[in-house]
Amino acid sequence: MTILYQNALSSERVTAGVLKFIDVPIIAIAAIPAIALGAPALGYLVGAAAWLLQRALQQVDRRMTASVDDSLRRAGVRLFEAFGRIWLLAGAIILAAVVGGRRDGLTATVVIFGAYSVAFVIRLMSGPPQERKLS
Fold it and tell me: pTM to 2 decimals?
């Protein structure tokens, strides 16, 4: 009985892990109809690249700060990193608008907003974060 329960838990973790990054393939899949319907390719590319870069930075930060024992320091580092990622996304939107024009900036904004919305919904549905085990 416990083996079945453990298998169910591990399959739930795998599913939750896959869903946690569902925004990444959605960006790639949505590019095809968006560009086919006339969205500026530069704006879409800049928005998608910025989103993917900030997601990669988020994962690197999570791994690096996991080793920090002081919870206050860990929270401070994560807060600083989160604001840095926000500035990265804002800079990408400005870059797309300056290089490509208003339509490119708007497209980059919509891509980032859509990806953020998907990631936010998944985060809400996944429940509270797992508690850290104290050693």
Answer: 0.79
Residue from 130, 94, 112 nearest 55 by CA: 112
Beta carbons of 20 and 126 less than 8 angstroms apart: yes
* pLDDT tens-digit readout, 5-54: 455 455 555 556 667 888 899 999 999 999 999 999 999 999 999 999 99
The residue written with tokens 């929270």 in the block is 75
The token duo for 17 is 């892990």
| CA quadruple 69, 71, 56, 114: dihedral, nearest 10 | 160
For residue 41, give the nearest of 108, 118, 109 by alpha carbon.
Answer: 108
Give the tokens for residue 70: 């002081």
Could you tell me which residues come within 8 angstroms of residue 123 by beta carbon, excluding any fewer than 6 positions away?
none
Tell the burial category of 40 from Cβ atoms under 10 Å away from its Cβ (0-12, 13-18, 19+): buried
Q: In sequence order, what DSSP letters do the residues of 2-22 get, joined into one string?
A: HHHHHHHHHHHHHHHHHHHTT
